[in-house]
Amino acid sequence: MSADSAVQTGRANLDVFSETLLELAKADKNVLAVTSDSRGSAKLANFAKALPEQIVEVGIAEQNLVGVAAGLASAGKIVFAVSPGSFLTARALEQIKNDICYSDRPVKLIAISSGVSYGALGSTHHSLHDLAVMRAIHNCTIIVPADNFETAESVKAAAAMSHPVFIRFGKRAMPDLHKPGARFLVGQALLVRDGCGIAFIATGETVIHALMAAQALEREGITARVLSMHTIKPLDDQAVLQAARDCKAVVTVEEHSCAGGLGEACASVLLQAGISVPFKIVGFPDEETVTGTQLEIMAYYGISPEGLARTAKSMLNRKRS
């Protein structure tokens, strides 16, 4: 089964985001959505139709988006500021830093169509820097949901938070990764599959690729642990350390630059703990990014079931040698 067919069996996380936000807003008139000409791409058309008094449209003006959201939050509103990730964390970074994070305004920053979700629109629309810049700004939780369950739970958790939070979404439909009864906690990784051969620590829309790689490896007699590291900050240090202790090698997977994201966060945890284990960051290298569909671009850089399986076997062979 290809990654494309697996992904298409589910629903887009953005659909679940908009439905969950609408439920919250119907129950509490203080819940507001603020958008930058992105209600369509953010799937907020139904929200706007149902609750026109609870959505603010600022147009293509991301700096205004963040400033307005910060002002509303300071007045006691529960604000979800929604914009494409590539623009939100570049054009409005100064406002995010000062008006929200350093001023401790509990705005929920929602970055849509992140990573290479915009595919063929090219690198101007790719968001491969956002986790790095947001990790460097103090006082902000960072969440990257992998499936519909993580999405709904993260939106509900964000609404209740009293400090800033950044949630990153892609565009593709995602299959359900977790069993009924799974418990979502901000800052605590979710175990998708257990094993002791290789550990895949993945986030967001890459988790399904790691899971499918694990399934392929099992047919070759290699067991793989798959962790959905939905919270990038605060990171679940204990899950990272345990994976390194239990498994022969660790591979991190992210739809983000190899610099400053999940992989470097995990590497820092392991190095500071004095744990030595074969370790590999799979993400986007420091080069001009190729253009294509999301899956084509990801596969080019080894972020695919086949690519991750090859990486895992290479890591295990290096361990044996």
Q: How many structural units, i.e. domains?
A: 2
Number of helices: 13
Q: What is the element string, with H for helices and E for strands?
A: HEHEHEHEHHEHEHEEEEHEEHEHEHH
CATH-scheme architecture of the largest domain: 3-Layer(aba) Sandwich
- The geometry reads as globular
Mean pLDDT: 94
Structure, described:
- With 321 residues, this protein is of the alpha/beta class.
- It has 2 domains: 3-174, Thiamin diphosphate (ThDP)-binding fold, Pyr/PP domains (Rossmann fold, 3-Layer(aba) Sandwich); 190-320, Rossmann fold (3-Layer(aba) Sandwich), CATH 3.40.50.920.
- The chain has helices spanning 3-7, 13-27, 45-50, 62-74, 85-91, 93-101, 130-135, 148-160, 207-218, 237-246, 262-272, 294-300, 305-320; strands spanning 11-12, 31-35, 55-57, 78-84, 108-112, 141-143, 165-168, 173-174, 190-193, 198-202, 224-228, 231-233, 249-257, 279-284.
- The strands form 3 sheets. A 7-stranded mixed beta sheet has the order 3-2-4-5-7-6-12, sandwiched between helices. The protein has a 5-stranded mixed beta sheet with strand order 9-11-10-13-14, with helices on both faces.
- The longest helix has 16 residues, at 305-320.
Features:
single chain, 321 residues, alpha/beta, Rossmann fold, seven-stranded mixed β-sheet, five-stranded mixed β-sheet, 13 helices, 14 strands, 40% helix, globular, disordered N terminus
What can be said about this structure in brief?
This protein is α/β, with parallel strands linked by helices and 321 residues long. The protein has helices spanning 3-7, 13-27, 45-50, 62-74, 85-91, 93-101, 130-135, 148-160, 207-218, 237-246, 262-272, 294-300, 305-320, and strands at residues 11-12, 31-35, 55-57, 78-84, 108-112, 141-143, 165-168, 173-174, 190-193, 198-202, 224-228, 231-233, 249-257, 279-284.
